[in-house]
Design brief:
heterodimer; A: mainly beta; four-stranded antiparallel sheet; globular; B: five-stranded antiparallel sheet; 11 strands; about 0% helix
Chain lengths: ~110, ~110
């Protein structure tokens, strides 16, 4: 099993550009989520999904969109990037009703 | 306002000694607590967890203690090894859909040989 995979590993954007961060898992996990990590802030929840077709907002959802068309994939879209979105983004997955989440290696995003 | 706090940004310990990492929380709805370990350029990896119905959970060199009345938990690593050098995140779950986690800010542990 590859576990949770994320692409790209690193990306530089200009303010106003759009992009999609990809996340996939091969563990047949129903639950998937996106977090961002900023210095001293830990990881903060952006959006999450409890199954295909179901998404909900986390703590810091503004500026991000998600969709969940399959169990395996959970892409995160930035429609108009801002410097405040410079961060490291982690995707995670878990089984239903299991608190232990499995994280991908992260995507480092720099918005100029 | 952060619901999970790790007040020590960093901790330095000598190899072979005990490392104690602390975490405080404010939300009484949290009923499950986890510790994650993170190396640079990698994603967090699960280390150990504890349910709110317990006050201690042990796994090899790692023990987590929970004091519900004080809303405090701690991670003990005995003996500490240089490979334990990493950032440790405390996380809590409960009272929300999807069992999503609320994280503390992290503590960077450095174990000196």
């Amino acid at each position: 099993n590859a576990g949770v995979t994320q692409t790209p590993k690193f990306q530089v954007l200009k303010t106003g550009q759009s992009m999609t961060l990809q996340c996939a898992q091969d563990m047949n996990h129903e639950y998937m989520s996106w977090y961002r990590q900023d210095p001293g802030m830990g990881l903060r929840l952006i959006h999450y999904s409890v199954g295909a077709g179901i998404t909900d907002q986390g703590e810091v959802p503004n500026g991000y969109n998600v969709s969940r068309s399959t169990t395996e994939d959970f892409p995160l879209r930035l429609l108009s990037a801002a410097p405040s979105q410079t961060s490291v983004y982690f995707c995670a997955s878990s089984l239903p009703y299991q608190e232990t989440q499995y994280f991908g290696p992260g995507t480092r995003l720099l918005v100029l | 306002d952060q619901q999970v706090k790790q007040n020590s940004p960093s901790l330095s310990v000598q190899e072979g000694r005990i490392s104690i990492l602390n975490c405080d929380y404010t939300n009484s709805m949290f009923d499950y607590f986890l510790w994650y370990k993170k190396y640079p350029a990698e994603g967090p990896t699960f280390l150990i967890s504890i349910s709110s119905i317990k006050d201690k959970n042990e796994d090899g060199r790692f023990t987590v203690f929970l004091n519900k009345s004080a809303k405090h938990l701690s991670l003990h690593i005995v003996p500490s090894q240089p490979g334990d050098s990493a950032v440790y995140f405390c996380a809590a779950s409960g009272g929300n859909a999807g069992n999503m986690l609320t994280f503390g800010g992290g503590t960077r542990l450095m174990v000196k040989p």
